[in-house]
Amino acid sequence: MYTLNFPNGNSQTYKSMSELMTAARKLGGTAKLVSGKTYVFVAK
Asked: Is the pTM of this model over 0.85?
């Protein structure tokens, strides 16, 4: 599982990295790797 953390403290898990990246794009930003399978959302 891949975890995407948001600046407001929320987080969401995804089954694959491609699902995570697609979700980040749809939200108007990108996902930046923090460690292992944990990413942080970066708004554009």
From this structure: yes
Quick one: CA dihedral 1, 21, 38, 40, positive or negative?
A: negative
Backbone conformation region of residue 31, classed left if phi is above 0, alpha if psi is from -120 to 50, else beta = beta
Q: In what order do the strands lie in the sheet with 29-35?
A: 11-14, 2-5, 38-43, 29-35
Q: DSSP secondary structure string, 1-44?
A: -EEEE-TTS-EEEESSHHHHHHHHHHTTEEEEEEETTEEEEEE-
pLDDT in tens, 3-40: 999 999 999 999 999 999 999 999 999 999 999 999 99
